[in-house]
Amino acid sequence: MERTDSNNQLTLPAELYLLACDLETEKLTKRDVIGNVLRAAVLVELTDRGCLTDDGGKARTVGDRRTGDPVLDDALRGISADKPRKWKAQVQQHRKQGFQAVEQQLERGRLIGIERRTWRYDRIVVKDQALVKRLRAEVVETLTSGRPVEDYSTRQAALTALAAVGQFPTVTSGKERREHKKRIKALTERAGEAGPALKKALADMDIATAVAVGAAISAGQN
Asked: Whole-model pTM above 0.90?
């Protein structure tokens, strides 16, 4: 499936935010990992645009290049001002701020409407549901078509890989991810350094959660 003009107007992190939206329940899914996923998407797009490069396993900015997108450029300035970090560490940086920046950008662009709630998760209303359905169809096609991974652009591979690694239930089921495990791995590698880095960052989160749960259980038994 080729990208449409309307798709091309959105950044990769914006597309992934929309993919995480459940159109029926009007909620954002995977809130525990969405910050990491969007940060990885920012890194993929900055690399794809020639603003970031890999230098011995670390992300480095390329000159004073800018994209013209405020969210991407703000992230780029932050990376430039900071010490060089490995890709996994970059995925773990500024997750909350990056998430809020993408969400606010979509809200200002009237692509989503947000009903702020005090005691429940915010209600997220996607204005152009047809766009989200096209994005989901693109992900499914990329994942299941059998076409060589090299036929897809870095950005297309990343859209599918990051949604799959983030385990977005709005896009793929656990069964589908198991069936296409090798394909997801290939697409993740095709996405560049940020794809595998996201997988490692989420694995660290799982380990930390397991340790915390184990400690709580142990403390309760004593």
From this structure: no
